[in-house]
Amino acid sequence: MIHQISLVCFCVVNIFMFFGDAGAKVPAVIVFGDSTVDAGNNNYIKTLAKSNYLPYGRDFPGGKPTGRFCNGRLVTDFISEAFGLKQTIPAYLDPAYGIEDFATGVAFASAATGYDNLTSNVLSVIPMWKELEYFKEYEKKLFRFMGKNNAKNMLREALYLISAGTNDFIENYYIIPAGRRTQFTVEEYSNYLVGNSESFIREIYNLGARKISLAGLPPIGCIPILRSLNIKGGGACRADCNKLARDFGRKLIALTAKLNKELTGIKILFLNVYNPALHVINNPHAYGIENVATACCYLCNRDSPFTCMDANTYAFWDAVHPTEKLYHIVADHLMKTTLAELV
Ligand SMILES: *[C@@H]1O[C@H](CO)[C@@H](O)[C@H](O)[C@H]1NC(C)=O
């Protein structure tokens, strides 16, 4: 009898804790940035930076291409699921979704964008300032949908995730001949981008964001396109590009420390995606991965005859972007480390 009573009490307490917790934790994941986190916004703008065709998305639920630059889901989708929210975060511009869907997570990200306005111009994609404009529009819709107070609470407790910077360096700084290289040293350009990142964070803070996660750069020297062009280096990762990614990450860490001190009530977490991704690249077999040097679908399109059979044995899906497998590993790592305190 005593056992039964204590069991009942135990269950009641657990249920209470479960529901009590649910309200206080992360009610939505709100995403800004580039192709690492774009869930398909570029499908609805005029640009060449699109991936809404097979075999992109072939391992996504339903096997459909969504505009994610991946065979399946992205880090942000796995993070959303880990917080008990949706399995996939919808793109804000996708007319198939409405404010009732976006209320628990939304992506404003646009592939090929960057912290620098000129980067988004290269392929005519959505600049970061415009992502912010969409966010303001979203806030207004949210006020109407759930009432101003509820919406403000939700926006305060939500997790914001920002992932950008790769295109600024690779596309705008290194590839475009008349790009930023003619105006800035790498060091100056890094500082310029970090300054833009800071302004962006201050803007979303002023709009009510408090839990912000800022992703660093992945080991960009290891993306297949840079490896395949590294003929002198025997196809190895480009050490200089990886160093650039680490240096940029250190500047973002300093930025998060500064803003955590200065802005009342803010919690900014730096997401180190570099270390877990490089660990996979250096120890693929520990993760069941066979191939880290080349992509499953190198110049990825419908007619590409060389697409691999099983993307789960690859770290990279196309010449630039990771597979769902690598994204899943990185998301699991982040949930166990930096993001654990929000669960
Ligand atoms: C980018 O462009 C927008 C719109 O013209 C402008 O408001 C913003 O200040 C620009 N950002 C930077 C860092 O130049």
Automatic annotation (TrEMBL):
Single Gene Ontology MF annotation: hydrolase activity, acting on ester bonds
Source domain of life: Eukaryota
UniProt KW keywords: Signal
PANTHER family named in the record: GDSL ESTERASE/LIPASE EXL3, GDSL-LIKE LIPASE_ACYLHYDROLASE FAMILY PROTEIN, EXPRESSED
Family to which this protein belongs: Belongs to the 'GDSL' lipolytic enzyme family.
Entries under InterPro entries matching the protein: GDSL, GDSL_lipolytic_enzyme, SGNH_hydro_sf, SGNH_plant_lipase-like
Protein name: GDSL esterase/lipase
Pfam families: Lipase_GDSL (PF00657)
Endpoints of the signal sequence: 1-24
The keyword DNA repair is annotated on this UniProt entry: no
